[in-house]
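Box 3.1 A note on notation
Throughout this textbook, protein chains are presented in two layers. The first layer is the amino acid sequence; the second is a token string describing backbone geometry. Keep the layers aligned when reading.
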Amino acid sequence: MLTSYLQAMSLIVVKAGGRALEQNIDNILKSIASRVCRGLKIIFVHGGGDVVTRYEELIGVKPRFVVSPQGIRSRYTDERELEVYVMVMAGKINKEIVAKLNRLGVKAIGLTGADAGFIKAERKKKIIILDENNRRKIIPGGYTGMIKEVEAELLTVLINQGYLPVIAPIAYGEEGELLNVDADQAAAKIAESIRAEKLLILTDVEGVLIEDKLAKRIRVDEVGMLESKIGFGMNRKVLMCTRVLQSGVKESIISSGLIEDPLKALEEDIGTKITLQL
């Protein structure tokens, strides 16, 4: 049954957050490798913000986080922070993942969006944040980007040659600069552009929790009503899952990356499925 399921699948995009990777990287990568070895085509997008923060603190760069009026918390990336972000994301984390997957028999290749410029983003010149008194404030945008385009050609060539792309969330800006982009957004945009069958987001909780209970299904038309109950970090994931469904991706799932076989969320009814309808 699993074999026929894998054969029916064309391609999935898997995104794992940094906390899930830190706590369970070996099981996440074994779960990916076992399915790749049985014929499933995967693109893997990783986070790693906590590791970036740790290295910033080691070299004396104070990390800064901001909250948008929509309640989404994100890293504020100035020039010094960008240097650390790129070194850790594209260097340490990305290459460690590639090495582990290669050891598991997968032909993994590490990329950022700057490679061939395949993830293009627009640098935010100004951003609106909430200050400590919950008032709106306009500040310089720093080196954070909003993804405008993902060119699928490079990924398609690599996948057709049997490679598994491992992608760090760094984009190519309009002026040739490197930009920090949200990993959930990167995974969603990649899934849209390459016409993936499914998007799976692995996190450090079992799925979307509403009043401390796992929501097994959330319809797209329910998202707005549930926004205040979902919480800051999860809101962005649900929003990205909603957008990919509206673009033609057949299914999006948010599930735990801390279990022994995290990709079983593709085959079993675990985690939270975001759906167009019941």
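The radius of gyration is 18 Å. Residues 2-275 form a domain with the Carbamate kinase fold (CATH 3.40.1160.10).
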